UniProtKB/TrEMBL annotation:
Gene3D superfamilies: EF-hand (1.10.238.10). GO terms for molecular function: calcium ion binding. Pfam families: EF-hand_6. InterPro entries: CALM/Myosin/TropC-like, EF-hand-dom_pair, EF_hand_dom. It comes from the Eukaryota. This is EF-hand domain-containing protein. GO terms for cellular component: myosin II complex. SMART domains: EFh. Residues 1-36, 73-108 form the EF-hand domain.
Length: 148
């Protein structure tokens, strides 16, 4: 991602217009920039910036560069994982099981509202199942909209 694009994203989160964002926004800004920071990365950021309330664009660029250098999971990794829950090999996962999993597992647990938004956007309401390939595509292609 070009620096101009990063700056544009950063500016969207700059509520005061003073060239800085709140530390609490880093996760959302990184996701908007196409990354998916995990728990250990977020914990490190919190520790590194625990005495600061805001960061400026150059600091954000350094964080983005460091995170971008880390390997990101591939589609195949996610497909393999979800296939464990897909006993019938249908490409579907039970909605209730998915909700429970997303709220309780992983480095970046989701809130019930975030999970509900994701599940509702993909769920076959008659069968109460979610096509997990579509879920993975949604999360990998547009983290901010998916809030994942």
């Amino acid at each position: 991602m070009a620096e101009e694009e990063l700056e544009e994203i950063f500016t969207l989160f700059d509520r005061t217009g003073k060239g800085k964002i709140e530390i609490a926004q880093i996760k959302d800004v990184l996701r908007s920039a196409g990354l998916n920071p995990q728990g250990t990365d977020l914990e490190k950021l919190e520790a590194d910036y625990k005495d600061k309330e805001f960061i400026q664009f150059p600091e954000f660029c350094a964080i983005h560069k460091e995170m971008k250098a880390k390997p990101q999971p591939a589609m195949e990794d996610f497909l393999e994982f979800f296939s464990i829950f897909d006993r019938e090999k249908s490409g579907l996962i039970d909605s209730l099981q998915l909700r429970a999993f997303l709220c309780m597992k992983g480095d970046s647990r989701l809130t019930e509202d975030e999970v509900e938004q994701i599940v509702k956007s993909l769920e076959d309401k008659k069968k109460e199942v979610v096509p997990y390939k579509e879920l993975i595509t949604l999360v990998m292609s547009d983290p901010p909209a998916a809030t994942v």
